[in-house]
Hints:
By secondary structure, the protein is an alpha/beta fold. The N and C termini lie far apart (36 Å).
Amino acid sequence: MAKLLDVTPFLRCARIDDATHFFTEVLGFRLDVKEGDFARVSRDDVTFLLFGDGVELAPRGGGRYTSYVAVDDVDALYSELRPRLDGLPRGHVNPPCDMDYGRRDFSVIGPDGDLIGFGSPLSS
């Protein structure tokens, strides 16, 4: 039987430059490839593919994650990103909080309405 290796979110965006700026300048990802309206960004072992199709989409997620990134220390990541997250529009960042499902999460709404979560297991 074939083994699944990982999953890479592929996000549509209205403007590729806005999306790559958000991932690189706000979330600290590295721009690996940008060709026309396609980009790949990564940080550590996490990759996002971005496709700018020029179409304004309705915000996605509806309060649900479109992507969730597991991290080893969610509070350390939030502290690192906080100075840049503070520049986002009001209501686009939910600070870390303990969740009933045994994780500590924070979330960010991207420029195209994607709700991206970051989280780690609760400490015992």
